[in-house]
Design a protein that fits this description.
223 residues; alpha/beta; Rossmann fold; five-stranded parallel beta sheet; 8 helices
């Protein structure tokens, strides 16, 4: 994967800030009895949680509006938590399953890499999350991440390989890098922290995500 200088700057800044992020738990939504739409759970970290954005501006919020606009009968449940890791995700996956998702966008692992978590631990946690969702009947789409080059070539390559390996082993659709479409030299689609997307950036990410999800939605994935 080509690593652009602007991306290296963004992720290096994130590494310095990550420990100060909120880890407040998302509110688990109750599916109304009359709502027959299939459920898409977004299971991620601050990128999904909409860190720094106003309510309604996160990419899962925009994704819901796009789905509604295309009359696709899906309800997005955003279970993103700022600062979360794969270990945190593995600990809360059972609660997420209570939402009865037909599809899951799994966007975790970036914080593991930025903290230098052993690759074996990240791999094991992702496997636990993926297999738990699949056992519950959900189609899992995996969102990949990369790291700045100062983490060392071996660690960065090994980290990226986790996502590709998981996609192959568990037959998952893979978004190689969820932020790929908002990386520009001037980082104009990022907040002043140069890490988290702006509202406009979130709009673009929603397109990236919908492109990956839509074939499975049309095919009637999951429950």
């Amino acid at each position: 994967m080509l690593f652009r200088p602007s991306l290296a700057l963004a992720l290096t800044l994130l590494a310095a800030q990550i420990y100060g992020q909120s880890t407040a738990r998302p509110v688990i939504q109750t599916l109304p009895a009359q709502d027959t739409r299939r459920v898409l759970v977004v299971f991620g970290d601050s990128i999904s949680a909409g860190y720094g954005l106003r309510p309604g501006q996160s990419y899962p919020d925009v994704l819901q509006r796009r789905l509604d606009g295309e009359k696709l009968p899906w309800r997005v449940v955003n279970l993103g938590i700022s600062g979360d890791t794969t270990a945190g995700g593995a600990a809360r996956v059972t609660t997420a399953i209570t939402q009865r998702p037909s599809m899951v966008l799994l966007e975790l692992g970036g914080n593991d890499g930025l903290r230098g978590t052993p690759l074996a631990s990240t791999r094991a946690n992702l496997e636990k999350i993926i297999t738990a969702f699949q056992a519950a009947g959900a189609q899992v789409v995996l969102a990949g991440m990369t790291l700045p080059p100062n983490y060392g070539q071996d660690y960065v390559k090994g980290f990226e390989k986790i996502f590709t390996d998981m996609a192959v082993k568990y037959k998952l659709a893979l978004i190689p890098f969820i932020l790929s479409d908002i990386i520009t030299p001037d980082l104009r689609y990022f907040l002043p922290d140069h890490v988290h997307p702006t509202a406009e950036g979130a709009e673009i990410i929603s397109y990236t995500v919908l492109k990956a999800l839509k074939p499975y939605m049309s095919a009637g994935a999951g429950n």
